[in-house]
Amino acid sequence: MAVPRSRILDLMRVQCRIFNTTFNPTNARLGNKVLRQRLRGPSIAAYYPRRVSTFKQLRQLYPGVEMYDNFEEDRLEHIQIAKSRGKGAPKKKKTAAESRKNQKKKR
Amino acid sequence: MSQFRAKKLDLSCFINSKIIRDHTKRKVFEQHEPERQALRYIIRNTSLPQRTRAQAQLQLAQMHCYTRSTQPKNRCIMGGKGRGVFADFRMARFQFRMNALAGRIPGVKKASW
């Protein structure tokens, strides 16, 4: 028994209404597959572990508490040793004239 | 590119310039993904006027390359390597082996039978 096309279209329309899909009897390309895709950005951006907080921020949160920053202390100690051996960084020049004088001497 | 790079470092894994670049690409892609998908929808939708679709095509092609999903590459979070990286563990093969043997990866055990 042949079913008329109009009946089938009606059925499709009801089906689309119930399942909340687009009624597209001519099978035109409407690009809905793009809208159906999930966004991949959040999972891609979460690949590398993010830095939660730093020692500086911890210290700012608890200003009264005394804390020991291992890396910072090590760095300062290293600088101290280098300075005492005369291998420290040169002093910052305060004025433009001072810095120019040094350049001429080197030549 | 430098205009996308974060002013402050927000990573806690191994860091080198390539990792920072890759991380920047990931964040830029996340930002621009809805825009890209909208343009893609306009391009694929044949019921829209041809002119609109062509304009959307141009606009999508002119977006910065960092906004593409094909730009980020999985890198090793322990050593920054770009090759031989297991996506599941985010580690290159040697780092994976060392960490697995040290028992730092849950559920991984050296095969023996």
TrEMBL record, chain A:
Keywords tagged on the record: Mitochondrion, Ribonucleoprotein, Ribosomal protein
Cellular location(s): Mitochondrion
Region (Disordered): 81-107
Presence of the UniProt keyword Ribonucleoprotein in the record: yes
Biased composition (Basic residues): 84-94
Predominant location: mitochondrion
Record has Mitochondrion as a keyword: yes
Assigned protein family: Belongs to the mitochondrion-specific ribosomal protein mS33 family.
Protein name according to UniProt: Small ribosomal subunit protein mS33
Protein source organism: Zasmidium cellare
TrEMBL record, chain B:
Keyword Transcription recorded: no
Keyword Phosphoprotein included in the entry's annotation: no
Domain of life: Eukaryota
Keywords: Ribonucleoprotein, Ribosomal protein
Family: Belongs to the universal ribosomal protein uS14 family.
PANTHER family: 30S RIBOSOMAL PROTEIN S14, SMALL RIBOSOMAL SUBUNIT PROTEIN US14M
Protein name stated in the entry: Ribosomal protein S14
